[in-house]
Amino acid sequence: MTEYGVCTKCGLTVFAGQNDCPSCGAETMPEPDASLIEEWHEKREGVCIGCGKTGRVRRLVKAKDYNGKTKIPEFRCYECSLNKLDEIRARGVPV
Fold first, then answer.
1. Rounded CA gap, 65 and 67, in Å?
2. What is the mean pLDDT of residues 48-63?
3. What is the pLDDT of residue 33?
4. pLDDT top residue among 25 and 35
5. What is the 3-state secondary structure (H, E, C) of 46-63?
6. Given CA atoms 47, 57, 65, 70 in this order, what sign does their dihedral have?
7. What phi and psi values does residue 36 have, to the nearest 5 degrees?
8. 20-34 burial, b for 16+ CB within 10 Å, e for fewer?
């Protein structure tokens, strides 16, 4: 069990034993498991390495059983990043 929780209304971090937020009085919930959270980098303007389109691009940096921090950054447009996610899933990585 995690030792911290999060307020569902204001996002304040609280001790896990607290059911009500001391700041706003809203209900709290346990903090999410960090190993299940994905980390993305996004640029407002960039060039997609997949199709060459310019505009908003992104890349997956970290997910459960995946660490892109050790790789050369490859930014992709939304459509190409979905295709890349399919490739990563095909390798057995749960993203």
1. 7
2. 93
3. 64
4. 25
5. EECCCCCCEEEEEEEEEE
6. positive
7. -95, -5
8. ebeeeeeebeeeeee
Query: What residue has token string 């390798």?
Result: 91
CA dihedral 8→13→16→19, nearest 10 degrees, is -40
Exposed, middle or buried by CB within 10 Å (0-12, 13-18, 19+), for 45? exposed
pTM, to two decimals: 0.60
Which amino acid makes up residue 41? Answer: H
Q: Hey, what amino acid is at 39?
A: E
Task: Output the average pLDDT for the chain.
Answer: 84
Q: Give pLDDT, residue 37.
A: 72
DSSP 71-84: SPP--B-HHHHHHH
* Cα–Cα distance for residue pair 29/54, rounded to 1 Å: 40
